[in-house]
Amino acid sequence: MFYPFLRPLLFRLEPETAHELALGAIARTPPALLRFLSSSGERFPEAIRRFGLEFSNPVGLAAGFDKNGVAAPSLAALGFGFIELGTVTRQAQEGNPRPRIFRLPRDRALINRAGFNNDGAAALASRLARARPSCVVGINIGKSRVVPLEEATEDYLASLEIVHPHADYIAVNVSSPNTPGLRALQQADLLAALLEALQERNRQLSQARPKPLLVKIAPDLGDEDLAMIVSVVQRVGIAGIIATNTTTRRDLLVRTPRETLAAIGEGGLSGAPLKALSNSVIAKIHLLTRGAVPVIGVGGIFNAEDAWDKISAGASLVQVYTGLVYEGIGIVRRINRGLVEIMRREGFRSLDQAVGCRASEWSAFRACDHGQVN
Ligand SMILES: Cc1cc2nc3c(=O)[nH]c(=O)nc-3n(C[C@H](O)[C@H](O)[C@H](O)COP(=O)(O)O)c2cc1C
What is the pLDDT of residue 205? Predict the structure, then answer.
């Protein structure tokens, strides 16, 4: 409603400063007012059950937007069915030097090399102990930068223990391109060892049923690596896969000048150019598992059609980050409303029926499919 006026002002500021301002403003606004401003009072026509949890709608906030949980109750009031906080690490850390977030408005994209700047897992846990959001809460954990890869498991285990009581689900991030070596944890043996250890501790910490443990993967995996990850996930009993994190590719950008990219340097690319690539990963997982492993689809969602594409590729929940930056808080309500209309148009009575209905089409990724090329 008011974002078309606000966005040019925010976009004049350095991206991370704009983010801090926006997040601070959301955190300070009473949840009831945010519910009113974003008209998030409407209900999605069906409650959605995934990995033993009930979601009021399928649209979630992706990790990285509120790493420290400073605005969690207010973000829930924007109408999200779930919010994923973090990535947090066992040790508080500053992340990479600023500037580390860059806008690419011509491609409706962002590049970031934040590097897990966060207050530490314990700070997030104590914030959540004081104020619990009204929707499903996922907590995303990563490796502390100073910890060598060989000691990663102990580091993740420590974070798991700290956040466990406060999370409805826990996401294991092995896919950020901004922590050196992290993506190596996606290799079969390392991933199996890490996930098995986390799953075992998860069982010990949980009284009745273990909390759902999910793994977040990169979009830059070969088909063999993806198949191997899926088989590890199924063997270890991981509850779901979050697909995908940002890409290190730059060839998906068609409008941003090469000199601009060269000046920005390294980092993960998100937003419209990532959409078709992440859809293909989602579709491949859906086909490999015959829909048996729930996928949270993320990457380049700006509207209900984009969310529908993810669902038809095989996602049973979706998340947004870059879309929120470009479209404002009304995006959550617009996607939910639009999804209901699309489901009706396409003749589906429930979301579950639609999951993966076009997986075969989406599994064949063509570089020219991405958001900006029509
Ligand atoms: C500035 C920024 C910071 C991010 N930080 C994290 C993070 O800490 N942990 C994580 O798992 N993903 C992080 N992400 C990735 C997003 O959660 C998401 O997977 C990715 O941006 C693709 O979705 P999008 O196109 O809707 O942005 C970050 C993305 C951005 C743009």
Answer: 96
